[in-house]
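In this section we turn from sequence analysis to structure. A common task in structural bioinformatics is to predict how a protein folds when a small molecule is present, because the ligand can shape the pocket around it. The inputs are simple: the amino acid sequence and a SMILES string for the ligand, here 2-acetamido-2-deoxy-beta-D-glucopyranose. Study the lines below before reading on.
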Amino acid sequence: MRYSSIWTALVLAASAVAVPSPKTSLRVKESIAAPRGWVKRDVAPRDLRINLRIALPQSNFPLLEQHLYEVSDPSHERYGAHLSQAEVNELIAPRPESVENVKAWLAAHGIHQEDLSHSPAGDWIKVTIPVGLAEEMLDAKYHIWEHSDGDTLVRTTSYSVPEHLHEHVELIQPTTLFSRFRGMKTTSHFVQNKAPSAATTDAPAINVPSASNGQVDASCNNTITVTCLKELYNAVGYTPLANTGNHIAVTGYLDQFANFEDLQLFFADQVPAAVNSSFNVISVNGGQNNQSEPGGEANLDTQFGFGISHPIPATFYTTGGSPPFIPDIGTPTDTNEPYLDWVDFVLSQPNLPQTISTSYGDDEQTVPFSFAQRVCNSFAQLGARGVTLTFSSGDSGVGDGDPDPATQECFSNDGLNRTEFLPAFPASCPFVTTVGGTVNVPETAIFFSGGGFSNFFAQPSYQSAQVEAYLAALAPGTFAGLFNRSGRAYPDVAAQADNFLIFFEGQPTDIAGTSCAAPTFAGFVSLLNDARIRAGMPSLGFLNPLIYSLKGAGFNDITTGNNPGCGTPGFNATEGWDPVTGLGTLNFGELKGLIV
Ligand SMILES: *[C@@H]1O[C@H](CO)[C@@H](O)[C@H](O)[C@H]1NC(C)=O
Ligand SMILES: *[C@@H]1O[C@H](CO)[C@@H](O)[C@H](O)[C@H]1NC(C)=O
Ligand SMILES: *[C@@H]1O[C@H](CO)[C@@H](O)[C@H](O)[C@H]1NC(C)=O
Ligand SMILES: *[C@@H]1O[C@H](CO)[C@@H](O)[C@H](O)[C@H]1NC(C)=O
Ligand SMILES: *[C@@H]1O[C@H](CO)[C@@H](O)[C@H](O)[C@H]1NC(C)=O
Ligand SMILES: *[C@@H]1O[C@H](CO)[C@@H](O)[C@H](O)[C@H]1NC(C)=O
């Protein structure tokens, strides 16, 4: 069915169906103030088509969460007994009455079974309809919104559903979602034509007791290579296998494309054994990998993530649907919800990479809570299936997504403009492993390392002991009112995040950001999975219950540095867990001894 052609008929029919009855009385489902920076422009064209997604409540998410924690807790008898795709889908399937009620409502608006598509578990219903029809169904008013940096979106600040559907619909998007998922890299440190790593200094090696052979090459204090990371994190000499069924992946969004020629230059320079090997590209939602437009972020993630884990088979997911959205073309609007497209896609796959790294995120407060919770719960489904998800913690300390502390605006989004620290999402999701940043050898926290406390998600019990110890040691009244002591605290871990030598447009290039840290940590997790799978053990899966239970073993505690933002010095890296570097950076050799 083509909605554009039947739209007029529907408009004419609408008055006939609008019989006043309790069933058709609409009640507000969600209403927000547009986040700072967005300005309302024209009304959206009524015939512009949007991809509407309707989330039905998952019947048994609490039980899924219980399974997740049991199979991820090393002291539990079910540790490692990950769930199958079918088992997960059964737990999150909507109740039949939710499906029936939502379908009846759609049918009343001329939308029938054949127009719908469903997520594998049936917990999402998707349909492409004109804005005019969405406005009718949702008692909403869509406008074109423009951000001060030029991005445009078609959104409404409020939507309603019939009274009787409130219990059967968790959320509908695109409606109130204004977030833009930026690549988390600090462009201020993006320097092209940096001397290749061969030009090292003659300075004596730096003594680092936890490193391989107790030493790290002096050049690593200025330039990070794959060899530096293997020395520093005690993994020199570990050789993984290509054919154990182990797999690593990184995600790409926002037209960030990973370049094959740059990869070969990188391998020739840093991982000679990997020359001529490559990664597999999987396109999600029409994502491209245009070799004429290499992306610094995508090159970084693939070069380091796959350089560390070579020869473990590797995948680059390129997800389409990125801004800028141009509202006058005749195709359906992109929804600017790339995580959902990606997570829908991977959840539909029977076999998944055991390790997946993502270096994108946005301020938590720009994401509607209902949406953040739903996406976070999707990450729990991946964890239950044995996947480790690493996310970068953000590049602006305790502040907002603006990497320049001078222009940071740490304002609450509730219309009151309160000053507060701004946590990042998905970094704040309790079901992912969030990676902060360090610099130099020996390591210290890097100033931009994102860290803090969620306003959406409560502190998960796996981190209570460490986080409460950190909070107890803070001087009374420290940053009172600026952060939420009861929220999920992050990062969980850290890794180097400055002076990375990548290849970009054929040139050696210096790059920085927690975007360096997430694929680095993931690369080593993939090596740990190699060791486990070769020993006949299941993959590590959701990592946090394990790593917090080790009470510091397997990690190098980072105890210096802080993460300023919002006009404050931010938090300090301290002994034990802290909201700058988490539990610290990994000691691969020691950790492997503990888990295999
Ligand atoms: C590493 O670099 C930092 C910053 O440039 C410097 O302060 C420190 O002395 C260097 N460390 C060593 C061991 O050279
Ligand atoms: C890579 O492939 C090229 C062209 O086939 C070949 O000449 C070269 O020896 C290969 N290098 C390695 C390290 O396998
Ligand atoms: C790839 O990028 C180039 C350079 O921007 C552009 O001319 C070309 O159309 C793009 N190709 C595709 C398939 O989008
Ligand atoms: C909050 O800031 C916005 C944008 O600068 C401004 O329009 C609004 O009036 C402010 N609200 C309050 C309560 O100060
Ligand atoms: C603090 O976090 C909790 C979740 O732990 C949340 O329920 C509460 O609303 C948050 N408070 C604020 C002021 O955001
Ligand atoms: C960080 O450490 C400095 C120096 O010891 C101290 O003055 C400051 O209060 C600490 N900040 C926090 C948030 O604990």
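The first helix runs from residue 3 to 17. As an exercise, try to locate the residues that line the 2-acetamido-2-deoxy-beta-D-glucopyranose site and compare them with your own expectations.
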